[in-house]
């Protein structure tokens, strides 16, 4: 029995079934080369996997990309380079059929990363010998790279914005300490990257908080952009690993759920929309109703314990 949900607090990333890859031209031969890469990106978004080294059947399966693509188009992407110049690159954007991709995911026995994903707030503080500064503008190319990696992996992120005078609402010294709980609260989602130049190398200390879990690790590289890019990949790996549903736990289950606090038609519609929009739920039907209570029958695509985890997180968000 649960109380009426008020709002998910999680975001379903846009374009989970869309892959985007650089191409040299709009020629058909180049498109045929790029489509499997776009499908591979989609599988990474849905599975949470950064690579498929442990899944040897994935690479041969990518040959089916052209047969399940729904639409595609091209766009020019501007990127900021380390010397503050701007490069333009042509990208192929391909959207694939949702049901066919889901079937492929199951066939390949890949884990499933549910679409309800809490955005991670990213803070970067840099000590390059000129003091500790929050996201100095001369390194904007590095933040853009982190943002692009998160989008390609299907992890929603947000970036803090300074005020009109360029001042951030958090002290750089606090960020340097990696105190994630002081940024968004105990159950918030935040990544703090503290980067220091040490001779010819950058040392980056990462503190990540997500869904009540905390991780800390370090990255080293002579290039700050590469160190932060690797950090972003590792952050997504850890978040996804903590939230993915193993292939063995996927399938079809019937589950009854009783919801209290239903006071009228608006409450009922809101509750029904909430349940129908959960990625773990395939189908919703009503089996009983009385004053203030509705009993639902849910067809789930994973074991009921995963629904319990979603609802438990929801309660934490409302607390």
Would you mind describing this structure in some detail?
With 319 residues, this protein is of the alpha+beta class. Helices cover 34% and strands 33% of the residues. It is built from ten helices and 13 strands. It has helices at residues 28-47, 58-61, 65-68, 98-107, 140-153, 172-176, 181-184, 224-243, 265-276, 304-318, and strands at residues 2-3, 18-22, 69-80, 86-96, 120-127, 132-134, 157-158, 190-198, 201-210, 213-221, 250-262, 281-290, 292-302. The strands form three sheets. Strands 5, 6, 7, 8, 9 and 10 form a six-stranded mixed beta sheet that branches. Strand 3 and strand 4 form a beta hairpin. The two termini are 17 Å apart. 28% of the residues are buried. The model is unreliable at 1-9 (pLDDT under 50).
Q: What structural class results from the helix and strand content?
A: alpha+beta
* General shape: globular
Radius of gyration over C-alpha positions, nearest whole angstrom? 22 Å
Individual helix count: 10
Q: How many E-type strands?
A: 13
Separation, N- and C-terminal Cα atoms: 17 Å
Query: Major beta sheet, specifics?
Result: 6 strands, mixed
Low-confidence stretches: 1-9
What fraction of the residues are assigned to beta strands by DSSP?
25-35%
Question: Helix amount, in percent?
Answer: 25-40%
Mean pLDDT: 89
Q: What is the helix/strand order?
A: EEHHHEEHEEHEHHEEEHEHEEH
């Amino acid at each position: 029995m649960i109380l009426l949900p008020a709002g998910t607090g999680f975001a379903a990333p846009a374009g989970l079934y869309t892959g985007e890859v650089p191409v040299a031209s709009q020629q058909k031969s180049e498109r045929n080369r790029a489509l499997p890469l776009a499908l591979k990106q989609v599988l990474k978004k849905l599975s949470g996997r950064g690579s498929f080294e442990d899944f040897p059947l994935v690479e041969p399966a990518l040959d089916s990309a052209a047969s399940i693509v729904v639409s595609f188009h091209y766009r020019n992407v501007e990127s900021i380079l380390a010397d503050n110049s701007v490069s333009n690159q042509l990208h192929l954007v391909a959207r694939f059929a949702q049901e066919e991709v889901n079937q492929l995911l199951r066939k390949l026995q890949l884990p499933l990363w549910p679409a309800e994903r809490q955005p991670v707030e990213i803070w970067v503080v840099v000590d390059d010998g000129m003091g500790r500064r929050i996201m100095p503008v001369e390194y904007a190319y590095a933040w853009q790279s982190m943002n692009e990696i998160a989008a390609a992996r299907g992890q929603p992120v947000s970036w803090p914005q300074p005020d009109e005078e360029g001042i951030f609402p958090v002290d750089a010294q606090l960020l340097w300490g990696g105190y994630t709980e002081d940024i968004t609260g105990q159950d918030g989602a935040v990544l703090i990257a503290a980067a220091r130049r040490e001779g010819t190398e950058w040392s980056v200390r990462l503190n990540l908080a997500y869904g009540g879990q905390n991780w800390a690790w370090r990255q080293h590289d002579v290039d700050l952009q590469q160190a932060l890019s690797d950090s972003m990949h590792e952050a997504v790996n850890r978040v996804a690993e903590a939230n993915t549903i193993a292939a063995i736990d996927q399938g079809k289950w019937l589950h009854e759920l009783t919801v209290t606090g239903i006071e009228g038609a608006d409450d009922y519609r809101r509750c029904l929309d909430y349940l129908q929009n959960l990625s773990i739920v395939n189908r919703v039907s009503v089996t009983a109703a009385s004053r203030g209570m509705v009993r639902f029958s849910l067809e789930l695509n994973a074991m009921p314990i995963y629904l319990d985890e979603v609802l438990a997180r929801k309660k934490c968000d409302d607390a």
